[in-house]
Prior knowledge:
Elements (H helix, E strand, L loop, with lengths): L14 H4 L5 E10 L6 E11 L4 E5 L6 H9 L6 E6 L2 E2 L7 E4 L11 H11 L4 H14 L15 H13 L5 E5 L7 H18 L2 E5 L3 H7 L2 E5 L6 E6 L14 H31 L1
Helix pairs in contact: 3-4, 3-5, 4-5, 7-8
Amino acid sequence: MGQLLTIRAPGETPPAHKAARGQITIDGLVVAFGDKDARRTAVDQISLDVAAGEFLCVLGPSGCGKSTLLNTVAGFLAPRAGKVAIDGIAVRGPGADRGMVFQQPTLFPWKTVLGNIAYGPRVAGRGRTEAYRIAHDMMAMVGLSAFADYYPQSLSGGMQQRVGIARALANSPNVLLMDEPFGSLDAQTRTMMQEALLGIWEELHTTVLFVTHDIEEAIFLADRVVIMSAAPGRIIDEIHVTLPRPRDADVVYAPEFVRLKRHCAGLIRMESLRAFQQQNVAARDA
């Protein structure tokens, strides 16, 4: 099984974190699929605390259980063992205290930008006037005020993802969960979206749990990066990113950034090779 590493957030957090809500507690989490002989463990014995207001990124090789971990925090998957709690309340299913942003924007094509963002507050019982006020505030925050009456198919991929972020934030969630949200964007748009996301986070200090396979993206965005092993996914390392904020694109040339990137890349390469070797052994023994 190997040695398991239990990751806990630092005891002292920045002042902006202390007053916020959105603490995530993951304790002994096991997520498995299938039954009996066909059972496959995707996430194995993960314990992780994310401080309120923290920006935490999860890295790991393909198939390591990153998205499974995120979907369990979202309440889309039930654990085989262990528990997940938000602000001390156990997660039993999806809830308005968590907003989710997927890799592909899941927008309603028949609704405008304004209608998409106002949808959540309307479902939550807000009146039309209040829901539209919230939507206009969110559009201003993500730089889309001029596109209120546009439909998703009229927007670029980056703009659609900004709508998705605004929609996820419209219900004022305590936690924002992001599953490789910029993975399908071109490099230039991706960099711009990363900077835009940091600007939003620095204003709101919503807790962010961000899954990515991109090492530079994780280091650029995060307060802390955790690295998962090849399947079954366990946490094998954590990195506290002390690069000063606010950050811009030039930070990738800083010696500390390069050092962290080299360290993460070495771990992920080692885990990817181990997974490849295991697959070869399994295929030979089949």
